[in-house]
Design a protein that fits this description.
It is built from twelve helices and 21 strands. Helix 1 crosses helix 12 (about 365-380) and helix 3 packs across helix 12. It has helices at about 15-25, 40-45, 60-75, 95-110, 120-125, 145-160, 210-215, 245-250, 260, 270-275, 310-325, 365-380; strands at about 1-5, 5-10, 30, 50, 85-90, 115, 135-140, 145, 165, 170-180, 180-185, 190-195, 195-200, 220-230, 240, 280, 290, 295-300, 330-340, 350, 355-360. It is α/β, with parallel strands linked by helices. The structure holds flavin-adenine dinucleotide.
Length: about 375
């Protein structure tokens, strides 16, 4: 039996940043992952780090701290962090009003942004459709990462520089408290022990603690995503969020005009039905990632989310994307689905005897906020 100070189950962004902050405290950490490298939500997303869109009570602050953490790590190793800003595009005067109101709120919190005219949006994003865009809001300090690279490089860096013990292809089937310590067992029968364990198992509700998840109030979301073939000739820096995102991102709920916008019908109600709002991000190879949709089921019904991709949803996404951007072509090289667990209280935390800390359900904001959240959570766990 191997002994550690902390065992972390699940090497997505949440588990890996918990490991990082425990390592920074000088602790001996084991990070276990059922796949060779994490292959779930953490690698299937846009890689948009957008504190400007987060709930203003606490999660915006976690996002700001996360940006500093990503930037500091980028000084240590090439983990794909780029400081290329986030642009929100308004498609109506009311959406533009919301952008102005969000700017005022963030300015008061010392978080700067620039309001953009339609011409300035087109200068920054030459492919934006003139008849879509009324104006925009730019957060120049915000960053992006390459989701298919960042977590893999970070794990490698933590292994080489911080002596992380990373165990791939290791599925944990039991985690219990024995002799006042956490005992964790994998499917090969190997056992590991530590005074504390953190469980960041993402959307896997059936292997560990199924009854806890069943009663958690969490829901599972399936998202449709796609990427074009590379278009290096297109200039599309940073994260791009568009009109319907203004109804989706939580920071806008603090804006005085939000209720008015929320109650307006969609120009196509099918977009509301499938939870579609359009985001763009150009990857470093020049391809453009486009998404997404949101379909929800209870955690006990995860298998009812069809395993296939619904081409009707993909077409709705593409039609809306074409209303916003005028790209040289729309050749799609990949379609995929991503899944995440989401809890109404922003995250699901369930602690067993102050030893096992189950933490998942961070929803659609995990790339933005996990680093900041994990820093505080590790402080609480080891207080
Ligand atoms: C399509 C899509 C787009 C998104 N875009 C963004 C974005 O641009 N910006 C943003 O901030 N957020 C975004 N998100 C959200 C973000 O990706 C998630 O919040 C985040 O990745 C969740 O991380 P996690 O570590 O909780 O879960 P996961 O990434 O699901 O990681 C959990 C890990 O635990 C492992 N595991 C589970 N059970 C076991 C076990 N028993 N033993 C061993 N290992 C186990 C799994 O294999 C997995 O690797 C997006 C999500 C999706 C799906």
């Amino acid at each position: 039996m191997k002994n550690y100070d902390l065992i972390v189950v699940g090497a997505g962004v949440l588990g890996t940043f918990h490991s990082y902050f425990a390592l920074k405290k000088g602790l001996k950490v084991l990070l276990v992952e059922k796949d060779t490298l994490p292959n779930e939500a953490t690698v299937r997303n846009f890689g948009q780090i957008i504190p400007s869109g987060m709930d203003l009570n606490q999660w915006h602050q976690y996002g700001r701290e996360a940006m500093d953490i990503y930037k500091a790590l980028q000084q240590e190793a090439e983990i794909s962090v780029r400081n290329n800003g986030s642009t929100y595009l308004a498609s109506s005067e009311l959406e533009y009003q919301l952008l102005k109101e969000l700017q005022a709120i963030h300015t008061q919190n010392g978080y700067s942004s620039q309001l953009l005219t339609q011409a300035e949006c087109q200068e920054r994003l030459p492919n934006v459709q003139a008849d879509y865009c009324v104006g925009g809001l730019l957060f120049p300090q915000e960053i992006t990462v390459e989701p298919r690279q960042m977590i893999h490089r970070l794990i490698e860096h933590l292994t080489q520089t911080y002596a992380l013990d990373y165990r791939p292809l290791t599925t944990i089937k039991d985690c219990e408290i024995r002799n006042n310590a956490c005992e964790v067992t994998d499917t090969r029968g190997e056992r590991y022990t530590a005074p504390k364990a953190v469980i960041c198992s993402g959307r896997d509700f059936k292997i560990l603690f199924p009854e806890v998840f069943s009663n958690s109030g969490m829901r599972l979301s399936k998202l449709h995503m796609m990427a074009t073939t590379p278009m290096p000739e297109v200039q599309m820096p940073g994260s791009i969020l568009t009109g319907l995102s203004i109804r989706h991102y939580e920071s806008f709920q603090s804006c005085p005009s939000f209720e008015q916008l929320k109650n307006l019908p969609y120009h196509n109600e099918e977009l509301r039905k499938y939870g579609i709002h359009i985001l763009f991000k150009q990857a470093t190879d020049g391809s453009i990632i486009i998404g997404d949709s949101h379909e929800y089921v209870d955690v006990d019904q995860s298998e009812t989310l069809d395993f296939g991709l619904d081409m009707y949803i993909n077409e709705l996404i593409l039609d809306e994307a074409k209303r916003i951007m005028n790209l040289p072509h729309w050749k799609i090289q990949n379609y995929w689905a991503g899944f995440y667990a989401k809890h109404p209280d922003q995250i699901f935390e369930h602690n067993i005897e102050d030893k096992i800390f189950i933490t998942t359900g961070i929803g659609g904001k995990g790339m933005t906020t996990s680093a900041g959240y994990a820093k505080h959570h590790i402080e609480t766990i080891f207080a």
